[in-house]
Amino acid sequence: MVVSSLLFPMMFFAIIGGGLEAASSLPGFPADSYLDFAFTFPLIQASLFGAVTAGADLARDVETGFLARLSLTPMRPVALLGGMLSGVVALGFIQGLVFLAVGVVVGVDVKSGFPGMVVLVLLMMLVALGFGGLGAIVAFRTGSGEAVEGSFPLFFVAIFFSSINLPRDLIESDWFRAVATVNPISYLIEGIRSLVITGWDAQALILGFVCALGIVALALAGAAFSLKTRMVRT
Amino acid sequence: MRDFFSVAYAVAWRQVHRFFTNLAFLTPAFFPIFFFVAFAGGLSRVGEVPGFDFSAGYITFQYVWALLQAVAMSGAFTGFSIAGDFESGFARRLLLAASDRRGIILGYVAASLVRATVTGTVVTVIALLAGMRVSGGVDLFGLVGLALLVNVAATLFGAGVAMLSRTQQAGPLIRTPIFLVLFLAPVFVPQGLLAGWISAISAVNPMTFILEAGRGFVLGEPTGATFAFGIGAALVLLLIPWALFGLRSAEKSG
Questions:
Q1: Which residues on chain A are in Cβ contact (under 8 Å) with B42?
Q2: Is the ipTM of this complex over 0.85?
Q3: Is the N or the C terminus of chain A less surrounded, counting Cβ atoms within 10 Å?
Q4: Count of domains for chain B
Q5: What distance in Å separates residue A206's CA from the closest CA in chain B?
Q6: Chain B closest-CA separation from residue A106 CA (Å)
Q7: CB-CB neighbours of B28 under 10 Å
Q8: For residue A217, which phi and psi values (nearest 5 degrees)?
């Protein structure tokens, strides 16, 4: 699980970072190198991979009857959710460290320096927690690992229909720019990205943290409610 | 020879019937459409990069890659389908019943071509709705020919892997190499604008020549077409023994 959630995002990062390097010569492009700009991609995608995998594990617990047996014990169901989400956050932490190390090796210049890297990892852990909560909602609502895996394209769409590949002001299509503007993922990306390509951008960071905390709050509330419903059904 | 074609016809008919009775047969079109909309919509400004010389616009530029991806994924999904047939036991009964087993591969290839035609048409219609400009005219048949070669090559590759592994768990072994070959081509900008390691890899990637020739056909200015067709045909010729090797392995496994 850890290897695939590290390998695939890095592969996409390498391909997109290399393939779109020419885009950095567009007038108004905010970074010197597309590699720096694209560095957010593996961080966000890795959180998504972790969330889907962890959600599928939870769904397996439902499918195999583990959750049903658990409901007969004194253990509080919320502990199961807490344990699963702790794993997702820990994975997000490992991913953040590994990607930062790889990024520095391949030449990504983090403008905000070491303190920025700490904030970046923190924000990434919040994103992982939010996505993990969303994965848990799907797992508890459907009780099917296949359904959780099937939700992967939806998460993927949310990531690509954002400012992940170009800054919003450089997106030419009006409809795409409008979608990217209302997509909260754009603000997570821009918050993380600002630490890499700009340095300390208070507005981008505040928006990034507000969006991340909003997603976390909604996802945790949804996951807790779905778990309660699932336990009643069980 | 008659046995060969009758087996191929039976397998192809069954596969096509399965496609059209289950909407999931359109699944191979999902990712190409998604990437097409995401890249053509979100990256259209990339068409203004200095040196980006493609007069038909960025949507058309991305369409050719999306089409090739759709037909290649149709081949990959046929591979998944073959693996599913082995898991369900159908393929073993088929191997027992077929008088000329090589016809099984031809049957799957023929069915994959039907699938690719449908998914390719879906991608094309979406591209036209999105504002794709085509100035190729008769040259477009060249793009269709290249797409068919890519589909046959991907199907033969998928069939070989599926018959060797005989399990759907081999899905990533079919899908990942195809994805890599597609993504390591000049997806976002022409080959001339790539730099660094990806430029070096795409320069020797066979998909690059097919993709660039396909873009030439859409523009009505075919370039490197003979070479691209040669590469497509060579891929097919190389992958026929691979698929037959998979078939022999499945026969030996009983």
A1: 160-161, 164-166, 171, 173, 176, 180
A2: no
A3: N
A4: 1
A5: 25
A6: 12
A7: 29
A8: -60, -50
Q: In Å, how far is B45's CA from the nearest CA of chain A?
A: 6
Specify whether the backbone of A201 is left (phi greater than 0), alpha (psi in -120 to 50) or beta.
beta
Q: Which domain range does residue B31 map to? A: 2-252
Domain of A61?
2-233
The alpha carbon of residue A125 and the mean position of all alpha carbons in its chain are separated, in whole angstroms, by 8
How many Å apart are CA A213 and CA B41, to the nearest integer? 29
Contact yes or no for A160 and B195 at CB 8 A? no
Q: Give me the pLDDT at residue A149, please.
A: 73
Domain count along chain A: 1
Cite the DSSP H helix spans in chain A. 2-19, 34-38, 40-63, 66-70, 77-106, 113-142, 145-150, 152-160, 174-182, 184-197, 202-233
Residue A1, pLDDT above cutoff 60:
no
Nearest residue to B189 via CA among B50, B16, B90: B50
Query: Cβ B46–A160 below 8 Å, yes or no?
Result: no
User: Is residue B89 within 8 angstroms of chain A, CB to CB?
Assistant: no
Please give the residue of chain B at the shortest CA–CA distance from A25.
B49
Residue B237 forms contact with A (CB below 8 Å): no
* Per-residue pLDDT reduced to its tens digit, A72-130: 888 777 787 888 788 888 888 888 888 899 888 988 889 999 999 999 999 989 998 99
Tell whether pTM > 0.90. Answer: no
Per-residue confidence at A157, pLDDT binned at 50, 70, 90?
confident
